[in-house]
């Protein structure tokens, strides 16, 4: 099983992708996933302070646990309307 | 009725779907694309969304509006993709027996949409483009 990771808006532009798959056993929480991508994409660092995250379409926090089959999303503060 | 669409929004048909004989007030709010922002001319906008979560959040806003205000029904439609100035990007329609609750619920809904629904706007100018982050 795996974790599906989604990126939106500026975060998608910085990573150059809208989604990725990770092995669930390597990532206990949201922050561990973010650190992995911040390592791969150093430009993410500038956004980390304001970045929002969600697990399965519900707002989550960096320490929120992640499980097999979860969908984890990272995105900037919203600007719809 | 909560919708994300990629085509022009027809708020009057949304209104016709929602209205019932017991309603005494319908408040319709339309957010439209403005041709200027941050001291610059805006040529057009593009909206991106986390669609599954955005729809869920719109439904939650609707449910909260119905709990907190004395309204009968509410519908929200947000458009995604490219839009030119004067085009409608979001419509909120509230029906109620009386106007005060309808106005209040409509204001609550649009303010909450701008703060909590995962949708992002990109502004395109003559000399570049920028993702907008955070509600205005």
CATH topology-level name of chain B: Aldehyde Oxidoreductase, domain 3
Helix amount of chain B: 25-40%
Helix content of chain A: 10-25%
N to C succession of SSEs of chain A: EHEHEEE
Identify the CATH architecture of chain B. Alpha-Beta Complex
What's the CATH topology name of chain A?
Answer: Ubiquitin-like (UB roll)
How many strand segments of chain A?
Answer: 5
Strands of the widest sheet of chain B, in order across it, are: 1-6-8-2
Based on Cα principal axes, name the global outline of chain B.
elongated
Query: Could you state the order of secondary-structure elements of chain B as H and E?
Result: EHEEEEHEEEHEE
The termini of chain A sit apart by 36 Å
Mean pLDDT across every amino acid position of chain A: 95
| Total of helices of chain A | 2
What is the beta-strand fraction of chain B?
Answer: 35-45%
Chain-averaged pLDDT of chain B? 97
Level-1 CATH class name of chain B: Alpha Beta
* Major beta-sheet overview of chain B: 4 strands, mixed
Main sheet: strand order of chain A: 2-1-5-3-4
Strand and helix layout:
The complex is a heterodimer of chains A (81) and B (136).
Chain A: E1 2-7, H1 9-15, E2 19-23, H2 30-40, E3 52-55, E4 58-60, E5 71-75
Parallel strand pairs in A: 1-5
Antiparallel strand pairs in A: 1-2, 3-4, 3-5
Chain B: E1 2-5, H1 11-18, E2 25-32, E3 36-37, E4 40-41, E5 44-49, H2 51-68, E6 73-79, E7 81-83, E8 88-96, H3 99-116, E9 119-125, E10 128-132
Parallel strand pairs in B: 1-6
Antiparallel strand pairs in B: 2-8, 3-4, 5-7, 5-9, 6-8, 9-10
Helix pairs in contact in B: 2-3
Write structural notes for this entry.
- The complex is a heterodimer of chains A (about 80) and B (about 140).
- Chain A has helices at about 10-15, 30-40; strands spanning about 1-5, 20-25, 50-55, 60, 70-75.
- The longest helix of chain A has 11 residues, at about 30-40.
- Chain A has a 5-stranded mixed sheet.
- Chain A has about 80 residues and is α+β, with helices and mostly antiparallel strands.
- The model of chain A has no long low-confidence stretch (mean pLDDT about 95).
- Chain A contains 2 helices and 5 strands.
- Chain A has a single domain, classed as Roll (Ubiquitin-like (UB roll)), CATH 3.10.20.
- With about 140 residues, chain B is of the alpha+beta class.
- Helix content of chain B is about 30%, strand content about 40%.
- In chain B, β3 (about 35) and β4 (about 40) form a beta hairpin.
- In chain B, α2 packs antiparallel against α3 (about 100-115).
- In chain B, about 30% of the residues are buried.
- The interface of A and B includes residues 50, 58, 75, 76 and 77 of A.
């Amino acid at each position: 099983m795996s974790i599906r990771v989604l990126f939106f808006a500026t975060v998608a532009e910085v990573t150059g992708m809208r989604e990725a798959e990770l092995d669930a056993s390597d990532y206990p929480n949201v922050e561990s996933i973010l650190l992995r991508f911040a390592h791969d994409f150093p430009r993410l660092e500038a956004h980390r302070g304001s970045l929002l995250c969600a697990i399965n379409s519900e707002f989550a926090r960096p320490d929120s646990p992640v499980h097999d089959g979860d969908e984890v999303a990272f995105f900037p503060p919203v600007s719809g309307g | 009725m909560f919708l994300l669409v990629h085509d022009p929004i027809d708020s009057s048909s949304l209104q016709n779907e929602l209205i019932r004989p017991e309603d005494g007030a319908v408040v319709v709010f339309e957010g439209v694309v403005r041709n200027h922002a941050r001291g610059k001319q805006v040529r057009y906008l593009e909206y991106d969304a986390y669609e599954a979560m955005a729809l869920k959040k719109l439904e939650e806003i609707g449910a909260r509006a119905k709990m907190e205000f004395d309204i009968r029904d509410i519908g929200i439609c947000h458009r995604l993709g490219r839009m030119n100035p004067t085009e409608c990007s979001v419509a909120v329609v509230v029906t109620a027996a009386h106007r005060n609750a309808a106005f209040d619920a409509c204001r609550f809904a649009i303010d909450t949409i701008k703060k909590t629904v995962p949708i992002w706007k990109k502004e395109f100018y003559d000399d570049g483009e920028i993702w907008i982050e955070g509600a205005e």
